[in-house]
Design brief:
With 176 residues, the protein is an all-alpha fold. It has seven helices and no strands. 66% of the residues lie in helices and 0% in strands. This is Retrotransposon gag domain-containing protein.
Length: 176
Amino acid sequence: MVDGRDKATKEDVEEFKIAFQAEFPARSLNVREEGNVSAEINSLEQGPEESLRAYYRRSQELLRRSHGRDAPEKGASLLAPIEAVSLSNIIATFLDGLVDDSIRSTVLARPNILSESLRGAYNAAEEAKSTIEKLNNMERIREERKELEIFRSHYRQQYQRPLDASRDFIDQSRPQ
């Protein structure tokens, strides 16, 4: 890119900018702000109405402000020890601050979740949320079917015929 900078396209410049920012995240020289970041990390929690994605983005921003970065993609430089500590702290706080206990428990049951990446923790939380929603939906459908069977049974006992036969009787008795 540097050798051919006079022939670089806008896309090349944008790619370089993204790679550069990933390699060298912004650093704050304001010590007072750093103290606030530490307090923010310690109090990081998902808001009651905050989406998982918004909470993840807020956590990413906190990681950036704490001079850290997420685990690198292939080809990027490895994390410095201080970055690894900062990342691990943010991941633990991110998971601990999840509003839904069942999502938190499901994600924390995964081995090595704290040594992966913030993105990995977020993806695991989204996956757990989706699985839990599917299970809850299946349970709701099962309960509705059970209720319907009970209703049919009571109907059969009271009217000595199955519910489906009664529907046919009603359809036949309607004026046309």
